[in-house]
Every structure is written in structure tokens, then in C-alpha cells.
Amino acid sequence: MILSLTGRDRVKFLHNLCTNDIYRLATGRDGQSFGKRPKDDFTVTPSGRSCLAAALTRQGKMVAVFRVWMLADELLLDTDEPALEAHLRAAIIMDKVEVAFSTRWRSAYVAPADHVPPMTKRGVTVESVPPLADGFAVLHDDDLIEPMAPDVYATSCVLGGWPRWGIEMDSSMLPTEAGLDPIAISYTKGCYLGQEVIQRVKTYSQPPRELKQLHFDEGAPLPSSIQAGGETVGDLKSSYGRFALALMKKSHAKDGTRVDAAVVRDLPWHQWI
Q1: Among residues 199, 229, 245, which one ends one of the domains?
Q2: DSSP one-letter code for 252
Q3: pLDDT 10s digits, 28-79
């Protein structure tokens, strides 16, 4: 589903409610100084840019993960979590911003990019996707777009180590537990809802759990929980063949750690960015 944010304050509003630097997306400048410069006019913004971000609770837990697409006169938020709409609406106080579900725009994952047909309408915005080496996120309003088959996308996510909402990540997790910090979290933008928790984890410790890829021994059965020395050290989230994604306790999250019938590995997509 795609949410549309319109209005004069849409950039500032979303910047203050999510983990990534929306000000930089709009201007190319660091959002740390938002409000300290002469007032920026966001009536028109550069069209076609995008980034990943998460909306958090005050405790740092994820409300939703979404891709932000910037168009000239609106921000589009591509998400799998319907609760994001209510979360955004509840935060509107003085800002001039409107939140609505978009009935025009759709998104899809496609691979390879040359399957994207020329657009005859407003245009296709294409963005490379970290988890899929040959995959792309597409924002479109054209019925000719053919999305990647769901089973192909699921397989690519497991092999690439990319978390999907409701499967490998959910509202019980910090974004750092899902491994999203390399592309969805700005540590320089300043304050946003839930920022103190995320910054504290980065500065003083590590996430209590971390999503990791497991390489199981050939022929080994895949358990629902990951064991090591008789102790449960992780929860299996998804799998393909002998590869799986699991949420591991930090004591067993280091790359190369041996658990029962498997080896823990860092998420492959972290090496692709």
C-alpha cells in the first residue's frame, strides 16, 4: 500500500517522525540543521529520489518500515503496515500536511531492470534494491509493469538476507535488530521519535537480538528454534534450501559462530552497499 503526504510541511513532518534523513533527500544537505537555516520552501521538491526509513515508538520499536519516494509535490510511502497511517495522523498538530492512501501509484519489485517498459504516462521511478543483486524497486502507475513472482522475491530475500515485514521483522523489534541501520537509519540527522533508544544502543551496546543468515549443514533438518549447547539462542524466521534467516541472541550473533547444525553469517546485502 502507498500513503501520500502532501502539504507545505510534509518534508519536515516526516523527517521528525522517521529514522532516515528526509531533509537530505529533499535538499542534499544534512538534516541536523533543520530549522537553523533560513526557512526552506518545499512547495516543489526534486522528483525521483527515494530512501528506506522506519517509524518508531518512543521505546524505539518499529511501527512500520517503508520506502519514501519523493515527487515534486508529494511524498509517497510504500509500506506493508496499515497502522502507519494512524501513526502519522496522530502526530499532526500544527504542521500543514495531509495523509491519505494513494489510489494512483503502485510499487513493485522487478528483475532485471530491462523488463521495465517505457512509460507513456507520468514516468517510472526505478531504484536499486540492496537485497536483490539484479532487482529493482519500481514506483509506477502503468498496468504494463510485471512484478517479480512472489516465490522468486521470497527466495531472493532469504539468499540476500533482506527482512520482510511480518516475516523476519515486526513491531516487537528495533530497526537495528533487523539489520536496517546501514541504509534506513541516519545517526547525524538529530532528534526524531524513538531516536534516543537507537542512539543509546549504538553508543553503549549492541542490539539484544540480531537478524542473521544461517548456513545449515548439508542434509540437516531446519528447526523452528536455533539451539547451541542445549540452549535456545535464536528463532528461525524463513528458509530456502540450507539457508535461513533467524533472529539470534547477541551472544550467538557474531559472524562465524557455530550453533547446532549451522554456522551464523552476517546478512549478505550488507556487503553490497
Answers
A1: 199
A2: G
A3: 776 654 555 556 677 777 776 888 999 999 999 999 999 999 888 999 999 9
Q: Considering just the CA atoms, what is the radius of gyration of the chain in Å? A: 19
Query: What residue ranges of the chain have pLDDT lower than 70?
Result: 30-40, 48, 111-135, 273
Q: Are strands 136-140 and 225-228 parallel, antiparallel or unpaired?
A: unpaired
d(CA 216, CA 250): 19
Name the domain count of the chain: 2
Residues 38 and 168 in one domain: yes
Cα–Cα distance measured from residue 24 to residue 268, given in angstroms and rounded to the nearest whole number? 27
Q: Are residues 234 and 110 in the same domain?
A: no
108 alpha carbon, distance to own chain's centre: 15
Q: Which of 30, 63, 68 is nearest to 51 (CA)?
A: 68
Give 65's contacts (C-beta < 8 A, 6+ positions apart): 52, 53, 54, 79, 80, 81, 165, 169, 175, 178, 180, 184
C-alpha cell at 93: 498538530
Rounded CA-CA distance 253/238 in Å is 17
Cell 530475500 belongs to residue: 157
Q: Helices in the chain by DSSP H: which ranges?
A: 10-15, 22-27, 83-90, 150-160, 181-184, 195-204
Cell readout for 206 is 549492541
Q: Rounded CA gap, 8 and 232, in Å?
A: 51
| Residue 123 burial by Cβ neighbours in a 10 Å radius (0-12, 13-18, 19+) | middle
Domain extent, residue 90, equals 2-199
**Peptide bond between residue 112 and the one before it cis (omega within 30 degrees of 0):** yes
